[in-house]
Write a structure and sequence with these properties.
The protein is α/β, with parallel strands linked by helices. The chain has ten helices and 15 strands.
């Protein structure tokens, strides 16, 4: 198979390495980084979309800047090529419905980046929730805090895409949290939020968000996101009538506090978990969907609902009032 990869940032490079190493897929890459030795050795380099499409790829991987995602995806979809597009789908809602129309018309497979859905702890947590093992869910606390300069220590963080306004800011950059919360708990009914730039980081976008999500099943979630904590934290704590489910992403650990015995029990503890494996599984799932012509776990049409939540979070903060979802 041949993959047309558009964009060669850190996630693009990861996907290319996984495709060439684990899946024996030939990669055509649209990038201006002509001096990159890995690209020269392992890939076919092209200068524009037209040249890449002329090589008749079996699918595309869109990993360029977020504000270019929709424009690129529409051109790919018009050529009837299945595509994987990195999160977030876009930095706004403009033209997403137009893209969905083209996808449906051409009947192509799509997948929006959602690697956490392929992490063993998230998979197991989803199973536990489906089986109602923690009883009726009362509340959720979710947090993703890190320090932007530590993301890519060898680069100037102030020039990184995440530091720019057109990235969509903290909410769109950390949209994985919104994705897995909706995957776990369903549709959101209302949103209240406060977003802004509060740190001394040299960035042009928001770096902190506090969000209250109310789901249609009456579950309340407190979600905190920020770019400014040097001691990273990433977890989801789910409180139910029978116990508490705690997912610690940084430790790859899932545990349960059982009210009956008044003790914590470790369900999963992956001390040597290779985080790259969830990205490999994600791509394998997408390729399998193409081969078998089946629906992916997170198509563009489905992910549009996640993007609507992100957009509503921005509106709630800007207008200083609750947003009701349809």
């Amino acid at each position: 198979m041949k993959a047309f990869v558009i964009g060669y940032g850190s996630i693009g490079k990861r996907h290319i390495k996984n495709l060439t190493k684990h899946m024996n897929v030939q990669c055509i890459v649209l990038s201006q980084r002509t001096n990159d030795s890995f690209l020269k050795k392992n890939c076919i380099l092209v200068n524009n979309l037209k040249d890449g499409l002329s090589l008749k790829p079996d699918f595309a991987i869109i990993t360029n800047q977020t504000n270019l995602h929709l424009k690129t995806a529409m051109k790919i979809a018009e050529f009837n090529i299945p595509f994987f597009i990195e999160k977030p789908l876009s930095n706004n809602l403009k033209n997403v419905e137009k893209l969905i129309h083209i996808i449906k018309k051409n009947k192509i497979s799509t997948l929006v980046g959602c690697n956490l859905r392929f992490h063993p702890c998230f998979i197991e947590a989803k199973k536990i929730l489906l089986k109602n093992k923690i009883g009726r869910i009362i509340s959720i606390q979710s947090q993703n805090s890190s320090y932007l300069p530590d993301w890519h220590p060898d680069e100037d963080y102030s020039k990184s895409y995440s530091a720019q306004k057109n990235s969509g800011g903290i909410v769109y950059t950390c949209i994985h949290e919104i994705d897995y919360l909706c995957w776990f708990f369903g549709k959101v009914s209302s949103i209240s939020s406060s977003i802004g730039k509060y740190s001394d980081l040299k960035i042009k976008t928001d770096d902190l968000a506090d969000i209250i999500l109310k789901f249609k099943n009456q579950i309340i979630c407190n979600l905190h996101l920020d770019f400014n904590q040097k001691s990273p934290v990433r977890y989801c704590r789910i409180v139910g009538t029978k116990g508490i489910l705690y997912l610690n992403f940084l430790n790859s650990e899932l545990s349960f506090f059982d009210y009956k015995i008044n003790k914590w029990k470790i369900i999963i503890c992956l001390k040597k978990y290779d985080s790259n494996s969830m990205y490999v599984d994600e791509l394998n799932h997408f390729i399998d969907c193409i081969i078998k012509n089946k629906k992916s776990v997170n198509s563009v049409a489905e992910n549009y609902e996640i993007l609507k939540v992100a957009d509503a979070i921005q509106k709630s903060s800007k207008n200083k009032k609750m947003v009701l979802m349809k």
